[in-house]
Amino acid sequence: MAKITLDNLAHSYLANPAGEDDYALKELNHDWVDGEAYALLGASGCGKSTLLNIISGLVHPSQGRILFDGRDVTATSTAERNIAQVFQFPVVYDTMSVRDNLAFPLRNRGADPNYVAERVNQIATMIGMEAELDHKARGLTADAKQKISLGRGMVREDVNALLFDEPLTVIDPHMKWELRTQLKSLHHEFGHTMIYVTHDQTEALTFADKVVVMHDGRVVQIGTPQELFERPAHTFVGYFIGSPGMNLMDAKIDGAAARIAGTTVPLGAGYGAPAGRTQIGVRPEFVRLSGSDGLPGRVLRVEDVGRHKIVRLDSEAGRIDAIVPEDAEIASGETGIQFDPAGVNVYADDWRVAPQQERV
Among 235, 253, 284, where does a domain finish? Predict the structure, then answer.
């Protein structure tokens, strides 16, 4: 396992990038702790796979360095980095049996045959393919082949890092949950450094110790699922994490209050007078319908999703979503909208502003 350091790292696919907009991956400086599980989360095209391929050695960065435990590996091959990588679509040896596919990385390194047999059986059990061990990979379904790819990536216990590039895309939904559970179990048992690329927030939040949220080639926040939910560092994180995402409203911030479309909203903490475009962000869980008090709004529709109801509202501050208990009675028409101060975040030019005092 290895601590991974991204030192002044950036990458452009252009030969002569003229400015920041020409970079698929903008400058990064981060340390990723040895033995933790990370998820790279973001929309398509945000730079997730580019960063993963730089870490693995498949792409050489335009600038900066990659260090494993302080050793510069920027110019070394994937094999020298001792990396296992699983790609979005299955990569298997069709003429080999499932058993031989799983055993290949160990046999290639001269491992003891008894250890190989034991480890292959462990991994086959983990991916649910004990009955297919002696079948040829040719002719298996795409999700079965991807399970072989996952198993081959996990079969070695001595790797510096396990890298997964959207590996569950072709897996059926039930098996996705099982394999995510098995990956977490593997991580807890062996303590591998794992990096998992996905655009699916459920996969990221249920798999990782820390989620690395990327937007437009940048890392905008690294945090636990709780930190991403409660204190999104960037408006994109608030929008991308959660279903529905965070409500964002233009506001004038004055100390411990915000002025939104003519209504004063208490913030629960002091923020001074931040410069730039200022907004407040409130997750739907912290929105309250209050009858006549608060920001004037109108109920557009109510969606019953079983566990709770999602209320879609219109207001002079824009569309607002609220989550209310399943048994709540929601009247149509006009209503007041209030926000729990404990759930309000303040943003200036899309970045979260830290309060100047503790919340009250």
Answer: 235
Total structural domains within the chain: 2
- Give the model's confidence band at 86: pLDDT under 50 very low, under 70 low, under 90 confident, else very high: confident
Q: Which two tokens stand for residue 334?
A: 């006009």
Count the residues in the chain. 360
Token digits for 267?
A: 């913030």
What is the distance between the alpha carbons of residues 251 and 71, in angstroms, rounded to a whole number?
A: 47
In Å, how far are 79, 145, 146, 155, 314 from 92, measured between CA atoms? 18, 7, 8, 14, 52
Q: Is residue 18 part of a domain?
A: no
Give bridge partners of residue 248 from the DSSP assignment.
281
What is the DSSP-derived secondary structure letter of residue 12? -
Among 285, 287, 310, 290, residue whose Cα is nearest residue 300:
310
Q: For residue 183, tell me if it sits in a domain.
A: yes
189 plus 271 within the same structural domain: no
Which pLDDT belongs to residue 323? 96
Give the sheet arrangement for strand 25-32, strand by strand.
25-32, 4-11, 63-68, 71-72
Angle in degrees, CA 203, 206, 208, rounded to 5: 90
Q: Which of 164, 167, 212, 162 is nearest to 190 (CA)?
A: 162
pTM for the whole thing? 0.85
Asked if 266 and 216 sit in the same domain, the reply is no
Assigned token pair, 234: 């960037």
Residue 185 sits in a domain of what CATH number?
A: 3.40.50.300
Residue 20 lies in a domain: no
pLDDT tens profile 139-154: 888 888 888 988 888 8
Contact 340, 323 (CB under 8 A): no
Residue 211 lies in a domain: yes
